[in-house]
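Hi there,

I know you've been waiting on this one. I reran it after we fixed the sequence typo, so this is the corrected version. Both the input and the resulting structure follow.
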Amino acid sequence: MTKSRAALALAPSYETVEPDRDAYVQPLQLRPLTRETKRFWSFHSAPTTVALPGNRFAKSLKSFTSHTTEPEFRELLREYAEHNVPRPSGYADVFHEKYTSPRVTWSINATLAPAMAGGWQDSLRAGRHVGVYRRYDMRSAYLWAATLGLPDTRTYQRSLSPWKNGNRDGVYRVKLLRVAPNAPFPFNSAHECLATNIEIETYNLAVAEVIDGVTWKNTVDTRSLMEAITAVSTWKQAGRSYWGRWAQMQRVMCHSENKKWSLPNITLNIPWAHMIVSRVKMRLWENSNNALHVFVDSVITPEILKTGSELGDWRLEKTYNNGVVIRGPGQYGDIDSEFLEKMSGTAYDSPLRRNTA
């Protein structure tokens, strides 16, 4: 058995680095290793994998937020190894092993990517609100978005006119005459953004200029994509992140003792990424009448929404019977509670969470 196979045969160490085996460690443990070995990979300036002596590797545990104990994580490694992913970096790795994303020419991605925007997070009506309010979230929102089909990349065609393409849908990089305050992010705050022809019509966007765009003739069946995601028990976690590589303009950096270089993302597909995100935002917007707060795939509202058990259906997460406090995006809680139940970026026991009148 070769040294690389021998190392792979041994289970990796957990939160420690041991001889003769790979390791999974916390991010703060990973960075000092880069100074010792000099050969590593990074993303957004943070090391993700470090090469160790003896053809071994230390990887980060950061992405595995739902498997935070050693038994849970080892069970995940066992399951992923059965799908030819023995050393995963995240929950979507099995999906990308099983599903081959189409390659898109750089010219199509290059002009659209700078205007790519993420989810809608907004405190629509900050303050203390007395009455009955409900917090709903969408079931596997980003996975549901894929079930609607994705553009056929074989029929991509550049276009500068959202209004003269017959039956062809498209996504465009546009400049707006003015923001649309009643539309979701980024249309409510940015003058330059990506928008599909459907978004332009639905949100009544005042387009001043079309910088670039791409249309497609039809969509592709995504059943094989869904099968690849749901192949493992952690499909819900994969369903939140599987599309991220299609939007990933930031490159992985390779470092050695004497140089560093970047790895191109061969799965970059801005039209696909935008379609996934835009569908979730539109469904959220369609159900945000009288809403106080929206956050990616959830809404706090006085309305009663129809719930269900299928992908994309609304799920009632909590009812605030006496009222709710909205302090900002991702910051809210029951009006009767001493502390806010959610305050993004703040520790659960932080005094900043105190629910003050």
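Quick highlight: The longest strand covers residues 207-216.

Best,
R. S.
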